[in-house]
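User: Hi! I'm working on a homework problem where we have to compare a predicted structure to a textbook description. Could you give me the structure for the chain below?
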Amino acid sequence: MEALTAGTSVPIPSARRTEGPGPHWRICPGDDGWLTEPAVFSAALADAFRPRTSEERAG
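Assistant: Happy to help. Predicted structure tokens:
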């Protein structure tokens, strides 16, 4: 996994796109709000980029 650099854009798939190829949602956004809470998104990114233990890498 590689972090994006400043100025890089990220495509946002349509609300109901759940399969590739290309960007898609693992779970569709809800009908009452389309955006992820910034703190939740930030925590998910921090978790994705944190160092892994050897047990986690073996998976």
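For your comparison, note the following. The CA atoms of residues 25 and 56 lie 24 Å apart. Residues 38-49 form the longest helix (12 residues). Good luck with the assignment!
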